[in-house]
Amino acid sequence: SKESISRGKLIIREQGSFAVGGAVIARPGTFDPIAHGAYNPTNQPSEGQTLHGDHAYVFYQMPDKARRLPLVFWHGHGQSAKTWETTPDGREG
């Protein structure tokens, strides 16, 4: 039954976020956001462009009565933490 599955409320003692690592690759030159910005999305020149990668954004929650080993959720490529929050029909993720 549902009552036997229920284990009470989850009390979050601490939550936060932080960034880890990261690299920026920059092309020489000057990027003109007016001439080559959102109004002209095709044929973008690479001069002055930057690529940000090799990093992670970490969001964490620590329960009030934590166990010895952590539970880590790691979503797949192109997804976000939203994967673990809820399902499309509103159930818990």
Give the neighbour order of strands across the main sheet.
1-2
Summarize the main sheet.
2 strands, antiparallel
The proportion of residues forming helix, as a percent range, comes to under 10%
Unreliable stretches (pLDDT < 50, length at least 5) are none
Order of helices and strands: HEHE
Mean pLDDT: 82
Distance between the termini: 21 Å
Rg is: 21 Å
The number of distinct β-strands equals: 2
SS-based structural class?
A: mainly beta
How many helices? The count is 2
Give a written overview of the molecule.
This protein is mainly beta and 93 residues long. The chain has a domain at 2-65. Helix content is 9%, strand content 31%. The chain is built from two helices and two strands, in the order αβαβ. It has helices spanning 2-5, 33-36; strands spanning 12-26, 50-63. The protein is elongated. The chain starts with a helix and ends in a 30-residue tail after the last strand. The mean pLDDT is 82.
Task: Provide tags for this entry.
two-stranded antiparallel sheet; about 90 residues; mainly beta; about 10% helix
Can you give me a brief rundown of this structure?
9% of the residues lie in helices and 31% in strands. With 93 residues, it is mostly beta strands.
Helices and strands, with pairings:
Elements: H1 2-5, E1 12-26, H2 33-36, E2 50-63
Antiparallel strand pairs: 1-2
